[in-house]
Amino acid sequence: MSDPVADKSGFLRMYMSNHPDTLVAYAKWYGKVKEVITSAEMTAIDTKVSLRSLDRQEASVLIILSVQSMTLTCTMKSGSKKVVRVPIEPPLAGYDDVKPRLLEMKAHAQEGLGMIKAPKITSFEVPKDAYVSGILILCTLYVYLGQDSTSPYAALANTVASYTGKLPLDIAFWSLTVAHSLESLYTFSLCRRHSTGFFIGAKYVLSTLLCGFPIWTNLRKKIQTARIDSVMKIQ
């Protein structure tokens, strides 16, 4: 099967040769190069496929691992060369994903190296899939909190609990509580890094606590868009 990114790697290498500062940022941030780099060149961008065998009790399982990365050849201050492989995660779906991903990686690397400031997020929105997630969470909470209640409003909860049993409800409730709490902490870290302000940040954190991953994945998309916009403005 052909690699749509590797097939056009020649053009990408030529294009990136005009942006050595970006390649140096890639090498220092993603490649963890601590030495002083005077220049860097992209020598490849492709997908490496490898096979790994995992031995189980009754059989051996063969796993196909696919890793996308760019290979950079860096010239150090001493004059020596150093080859650095920078992973591209998540993998590119196709050639059209290359430019926005490279721009996002550039912004992320420059932010991490202190070359530019992290973009600010100044708006809040709830994606459509968050409503579905929120309804499912509320239904779970209703059944968990309403079981064993004598209130007429808890009749449906008791009916559901009689079919599921108490243990599955306990597992579902505490699993959601732990998962959404951790996701809320992650959302808080994003809000703090990208200076959302108290009120917008509180909306994101509380919405994540209720709805879970649809909120923070949407926030990450907004951050990605803001990063690309910030890079385009200074190019």
Shape: elongated
Largest beta-sheet characterization: 3 strands, antiparallel
Question: What is the strand arrangement across the widest sheet?
Answer: 1-2-3
- Structural class estimated from helices and strands: alpha+beta
Helix-strand pattern: HHEEEHHHHHH
Helical residue percent band? 40-55%
On the 0 to 100 scale, the average pLDDT is 83
| Count of discrete alpha- or pi-helical segments spanning 4 or more residues | 8
Q: What integer value in Å does the Rg equal?
A: 24 Å
Unreliable runs: none
What is the beta-strand fraction?
A: 15-25%
Q: How many β-strand runs?
A: 3
Calculate the terminal CA-CA distance, rounded to whole Å: 35 Å
Could you outline the blueprint of secondary structure elements for this entry?
Elements: H1 9-16, H2 20-29, E1 37-55, E2 60-76, E3 81-87, H3 98-112, H4 128-146, H5 155-164, H6 166-193, H7 198-211, H8 213-234
Antiparallel strand pairs: 1-2, 2-3
Helix pairs in contact: 2-3, 3-8, 4-5, 4-6, 6-7, 6-8, 7-8
Could you explain how this protein is built, in words?
- The protein is of the alpha+beta class.
- Helix content is 54%, strand content 18%.
- It has eight helices and three strands; from the N terminus they run ααβββαααααα.
- α2 (20-29) packs across α3 (98-112), α4 crosses α5 and α6 packs antiparallel against α7.
- The model has no long low-confidence stretch (mean pLDDT 83).
Brief characterization of the structure:
This protein is of the alpha+beta class and 235 residues long.
Structural key phrases:
single chain, 235 residues, alpha+beta, three-stranded antiparallel beta sheet, 8 helices, 54% helix
